[in-house]
Every structure is written in structure tokens, then in C-alpha cells.
Amino acid sequence: MTNINEYQKTVTKVKKYSSNPELYLLAKLTEETGEVAKEIIRKVDGRTVQRDLKSELGDLLWCISAIGENYGITLEEVIEDNLQKLKNRDLL
């Protein structure tokens, strides 16, 4: 991949939903966020990590990519908007 928008276009070709994409993607985002949280809690508690956190973050990124794609928003736009918001709040 050469940029984040190419990543988004590539990974969102994997669509396992045909009807009601908004609901599916919201549920998937919630599920994957929970998986990330479980791994962080395991690490904080000193327990053995069952899954790779990097892999779980990748699943979360797929969800964000697919939601953006569904609404015609590129990841580049998301990143630029977020950077501007942080600058406006004097956090950067």
C-alpha cells in the first residue's frame, strides 16, 4: 500500500454484508472495539494475551475503513479533520 486511501479501497472490497450495512458495521465496530479492550485488560492485569493486539487493531481499522467507505468518507479526510481538531484545541 502506498497510502491510507488505497488501503481503504482495498480492504473494503471484503464485504460480508449485503443488507443494512449501517447496522452491520456498527455491530462489527462494537465487537472489534471489545476485542481490543479485552487484550488491553489482559495486559494490564498481567494475564496471558490470547490474541495479537496488532491484529485486533487491524480489525478495528477495517471497521473504520468500511464505515467511511459506506458514507463516502476517506481515511485521509478523517485523519486531516482529526489533526485540525487537535490543533484547534491547542493539543498539537
- Structural shape: globular
Weakly predicted, low-confidence segments:
none
- What string, H for helix and E for strand, traces the elements in order? HHHH
Please give the largest β-sheet. Answer: none
Question: Can you tell me the CATH superfamily?
Answer: MazG-like
**Corresponding CATH architecture:** Orthogonal Bundle
Please tell me the total number of domains: 1
Structural category is mainly alpha
State the CATH topology: Helix Hairpins
Walkthrough of the structure:
This protein has 92 residues and is mainly alpha-helical. It has a single domain (4-88), classed as Helix Hairpins, CATH 1.10.287.1080. The chain contains 4 helices and no strands. The protein has helices at 4-11, 21-44, 53-70, 75-88. The chain is globular and about 40 Å long. The two termini are 27 Å apart. The mean pLDDT is 91.
Give the tags.
single chain, 92 residues, mainly alpha, Helix Hairpins, 4 helices
Brief sketch in words of this structure:
With 92 residues, this protein is mainly α. It is built from four helices and no strands.
Q: Which helices and strands occur, and which strands form pairs?
A:
Layout: H1 4-11, H2 21-44, H3 53-70, H4 75-88
